Amino acid sequence: MLKLRRIAIDTYHENVAFLRRDCSLYRAESFQALGKIEIYPDHGGATASPRRILATLNIVDDALLLEPDEIGLCEQAFDLLGLAEGAAVDIVQAPPPQSLESVRDKIHGETLSEEQIRHIIEDIAANRYSKMEIAAFLISSASFLTTAEVLSLTRAMAGVGATLEWAQEQVVDKHCIGGIPGNRTSMIVVPIVAAHGLTIPKTSSRAITSPAGTADSMEVLARVDLSFDEMRDLVNKEKGCLVWGGHVDLSPADDILISVERPLAVDTREQMVASILSKKLAAGSTHLVVDIPVGPTAKVRDHDDAVRLRKLFEYVGDQVGLRIEVVITDGTQPVGYGVGPVLEARDVMAVLECKPHAPQDLREKALFLSGKILGFDPDLRGGTGHERAQEILDSGQALAAMERIIEAQGRNTTPPELGRLTHEIPASADGVVRAIDCFRIARIARLAGAPLDKGAGLELFKKMGDAVRQGEALYRIYACAESEFRFATDMAAENNGYTLS
After folding, report:
1. CATH numbers and ranges of domains, the chain
2. DSSP 3-state assignment of 228?
3. Per-residue H/E/C for 133-186
């Protein structure tokens, strides 16, 4: 039998196996046609043990990496198989999952049934799909999904993996569809709502196409990779949390899809709705506020598109038992001063600490959304949600709640610092800031290294309506590496994203 060996390679949500071309037990080339193998412990035959995994096979020519009688597994696949190094394993050719036939149907423009979509999602969650096959599903779905397919996709993703159940009848949450740099309202809303006494188990994804997600920014302050049990205990104690949804196994297929969506920059309305609502269902939420920013360079460009998206959220929410309030907000420019995890976390804490220099647009938007969520509380008089949110923030109760959440999640005792490489982008002439391109600002911040380098990003000095003089700094770029610094400064020099009147 082959001997198992762990290969220290992170293949990011894909099982990969490595076999020597001159393997002493198998002809490696005979396994290459399908590209996938099934690996299982040697207990007398392929059907003797339920512990088995599917993996994409890579052929190795480097004699230093593997012995001829060894099979290597990437870190994720090794952990899933759960055997010790040196354990005896066997392999067989693995035919493609049957659900791939449904993906081919979708590629040809057919509408899939709820059962077909469920099988696809189950196979994706079980790591039976390669990234190429996942990409085929995403691109074919991006072309067209019916409303019924979106509903089926939501139910399928919510039904795979863990689900949280709470003793409280009312469990609230909020979500912004993204696309606006610096829009880190969740880190203010959660402590306000938790301090009021409503349960808000906030799970967030890492950034897909933006310079930071809530999980990326919260990780500057505290640990976000909590386990299922840790998250449940934390919320029962503190009423709220700010954790990475990918680590608590809530809608795990969604995280695998996101890992492929990120490099493809695919984020369609239909997939977005299924992604968001499946996570909220799995987290046990009953009431949800959805923020749709609208602006000329936001994800949603005009009011009509926002209304169509709102109706899709409302329809799917009604069908799965979620009470949803969708709010359409201003997405014409970034929110706050910082773009990137460290800078955004700094803005959040300035608002919670009620510092005079805190960004007022971030404060007001967070209060607006908090007021909408507090409006779900049947014990709160109608129309007083915003007033109650402001009282909690100004009195320091929200800051105290945030500090408790940070301590309970595990305070980051060595928080990342801002990038050491900096460059200020000057105004080309005297004038007034007439427009800021959110998409361009986000791209420059990502080229600077955000969110992978948490100290990378942009610090904005000017917002729409501000007067500027020629040569005055519009914003400052922070980067941690020379290559990213050069990429970001070159793009900003070509087009800095600001329009002056």
Report:
1. 2-93 (2.40.40.20), 100-144 (no CATH), 172-409 (3.40.1030.10), 421-500 (3.90.1170.30)
2. helix
3. HHHHHHHHHHHCCCHHHHHHHHHHHHHCCECCCCCCCCEEEEEECCCCCCCCCH
Name residues whose C-beta falls within 8 Å of residue 225's C-beta, 6 or more positions apart in sequence: 243, 244, 247
- What is the block-wise mean pLDDT of the chain (501 residues), using blocks of 10 residues? 93 88 84 78 57 88 93 93 93 89 96 97 89 92 93 95 89 93 96 98 82 94 93 95 83 85 81 93 95 95 95 97 96 97 98 97 98 96 95 98 98 96 97 97 97 97 98 98 97 97 92
Alpha-carbon distance values, 147 to 253, 254, 268, 316 (Å): 20, 18, 13, 8
pTM passes above 0.70: yes
Q: Is residue 217 a contact partner of residue 187, using CB atoms and an 8 Å limit? A: yes
Contact 255, 262 (CB under 8 A): no
Catalytic residue status for 347: no
Identified catalytic residue from 123, 173, 267, 453 = 267
